[in-house]
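Purpose: get a first structural picture of the assembly so the mutagenesis plan has something to point at.
Setup: two entries, given in the order below. No constraints added.
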Amino acid sequence: MLEPVMFTGGLYKHDLVLELVEDLGGYILQKNVTQTEIILLLLVPSEDMNALEILSRELRGELVRAPLAGTEVAVVTPTLAIHHLPHVACDTAEYLRRHGSKTNMIGMARGVGREIAQINEYETALINEHDAAVFIFGNFGDCIKKKEQLYRNISVPVIVTGGPKMKKEDLPYAFGYVPSIGRMAHRTRKATEIATLDNIVEMVGRALDQTRAAITKDPLTTSPPRVMDAVREQVPEVEFSYSPLPIALNLNGVRVKLPYQLYKDKLAAVTFDEGVRLGEVATIRPSRMKDYILVRILPSSETGFVF
Amino acid sequence: MDPMEVFKIEVTGEEEYGAKKYREIIMDILQDLGLIRSIGRLYVYVDITIPVFAVYGLLRSGIPPLTVKDVGDVMRVGGGHQIKINDEEHMADLLKALWKRYGRERVEQPARDVVIIASDTPPSDLMVTDMEAEFLQDLTDALVRIAPEGFRNRRNVMTKDSFFFIAAEESIKPELISEIEEKIREMENA
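Result (structure tokens, whole complex):
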């Protein structure tokens, strides 16, 4: 089984880590260089974890488990105005990132208010491209209950956050509810506030585990990290994409950040060692996010094989 | 401890948490904008079933306008007056006021913090900026920030020593205003 971990350390000799992970048959999900520091998100076979731990100790790096690595989470706020940002939404997004997830912040066009809140088809479809969504609501219980219509049609697990304590039966369409983080005008710095952020990460982790369990019942034809590796090798243009993460991983596919019209055929022609082409085991369609390409791997019940 | 004499917040329904949190939000925003010392009493009334958000506040005694002698030292020099600036924050306003009074050709700035005016009348009492107008502008900004975002219909009445702000999702009718005024009066007398 592959274990998701985050390596933080100096830039010097970090290629040793990359080489080791490749030798062990793991995957490099993300590489972030900040001046002399580097943050690597890795998938490493759990039985070989020890080798990486020894190397990271030698390099004076830090190795922590990143339970959300390889997933994309949407942090949704009613709008992008000062009332909702920056504190609660940005802190939540940043905290999720620290635990390895790729987090996108989405501000709705007309999500404000109690009676007038709306979500449109495009926003719903965009949120549905993620693996889970965190909806950030305010301090009034009545409003949180009324705003249920915003996420009722979303098919990925939705975690709602808000101020007051709520009963589970009040929010039947949400996967879970995390209280005591409603609207506020200061940074999350107190121990209780940080603990609330931990609760959100834990709840998101549980939602993703549920999706993973559902996938194992009808496994994907191939794994998303493998698709990522093959695309990176056979479509070298992806490395020239300006996006910090040119291939974003989801639980059931990948998002390739290249123009759809120009690269869809090239992507479909990506061939694996077994001789299978990507177009045969996955659907390739335009993503709702910019002009990107969304690859969704088909389950084995549709293709009839797993490799 | 609240720096205000009175700070009451009332929210209808079972929303104690909301009331407590909005208290924090109001304090945070007023502190951020440096307004907290100018407000004496504050009454906040929220009815989430309508929904409406109202704030009534009494201001502390008026702020005098800022004059030239507040921002620097005025000295008599040969051929005019010299101002040695101590508070650079209002430099732009100061120059604007001097240009308007004396004309650009008579205002000279040989160094960053020195302005010389070729005039015999001392500029000491010339008004640099109206602090009260600035304060009222900041206060309106604070109220818009405090009110929940969806409450887009707003009504703001400001007098010399008080302000009364209502924000609602639906249009604000006269009956609603008088109802809220009544509620706030009750809070004042309680």
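Residues 16-32 of chain B form the longest helix (17 residues).
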